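The methods section describes the discrete structure representation at length, but only in general terms. Since the whole study asks how a given chain folds, the encoding of that fold should be made plain. An entry of this sort, consisting of the sequence and the corresponding backbone structure tokens, reads as follows:

. . .
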Amino acid sequence: MIETRGRSLADALVRTATAEAARFHQLTGRPATLAIMAGDDGASRRYLEFKQRRFQEAGLAVRAFGFGPAAGTTEVLLQVHALNADPAVDAIFLQFPLPAGVDVTRAGDSVDPDKDIDVAGSANLGRVLAGTAEYLPATAAAVLRLLDDELSDLGGRSVVVVGTAGSVDRTIALQAHARGGTGGELAPGAP
């Protein structure tokens, strides 16, 4: 049941993104450009390819950057700074997990908050906490939308988020609390 709703939501979001991408292209004369930075293991590579295909189908230009297992923080930071400075890059998405040698907090915080579309950095996480975020991490937004569709109101419901306390998990917990849920607690994820 929830899988069917998830697919319907995904299809609706793709239609909305396609229309917005077309408007952006019409206004600027170029497609909106998303840079995706990811680790280079098999699962990350497949997920990156899936996202590239879906975004391109919606009319977005995608620049993908894969980092091998030996990549370190400096290599990622240099790429992030170059993307921050590139006026043709409208958004940056850090796909986790990044290679083990990368300080993900520093990497996330180095993304220009105006280009950080998945709340990888502390500045945008702070905006989520303050209730002033322009957008939420995609996964968190989708989970909250499914909860809204299923429950219509979180008021008075006990909410526990099981995860690793990343920005997605924290965002869901904060938003559940802001929507009247009692708790909005984080519980450690299963190993």
Q: What stands out?
A: The first helix runs from residue 2 to 28.
